[in-house]
Predict the 3D structure of the following.
Amino acid sequence: MRTQNLNNQRKGCLYVVLAAALWAVSGTTAKFLFNAGVTPFQLVQLRSTIAAVAVACWVLLGRRGLLRIERKDLPYFAVLGAILAAVHFTYLYAISRIQVAAAILLQYQAPVFVVLFSVFVKRRKPLLSTIVTVAGAVAGCYIMTGGYDINVFALNKAGVSAGLASAAVFALYAVASEYGMRSYSPWTVLFYALSFGAFLWNVFQPPLSAFAVPYSAASWCGIFFVGIFGTAVAFGLYNEGIRLIGATRASITAILEPVIAGVVSYFFIGEKAELMQMAGAALIVASILLLQTRKKVYAHGE
């Protein structure tokens, strides 16, 4: 039993790391798209719709049993879809208004919100090791992204607000999806969340209007990457991770995103990290490794 739990923990951690890697590339791709003239409103409609269709095709090809849900759970999935739609928009809007590093720093305050939710709503008491892990990972993210050089007061206020909102809704998504996975497969949860989210974005804006814009071939490649790999695949992996290791562990492990982005930048564009950034990356990795050695993150329950 202990070996099985350890294997699940390792597998869950790997899923989240892979999701973080896809998000790292997706964030940079989104910035490229914004510079090419794609608006956040267009990209979120494109992203949501493409991801929903991609997951629907995957489910319909031999996995139709995943579509079965109780009618009483439809309101839950509708709310989860709205939360996921908010996750997509707030982060993309933040990236369009402020530096990618600042947006990542703001969004990855999410583990703090997850722990606070567990403390004040679920009445769980976090272990000291959990508090140390969260503090270490968030501090590492601050250093890794160069937060000490970011003049918050000089940043676009709407972008900062969107970044903080993205942290809150990203945490809420992790907690809410974990609740749904008590009864359903991670892919069932993702299918309905994406479907409702895509529906909302095609109501808030003229249906499929973003698809009628004449983007360049390079932009279309970026759009499909963000929609399929940065959304459908990444959130599918993240959901699998949440199922195996819980929302708290998953949200902390996802802070590896800026570290992975730094490694990708080094190998593909020769961008070298400063000593402080490497120290921040080391602190993130050390915090996550500490997390993986702990059997529990709360005094009672996972």
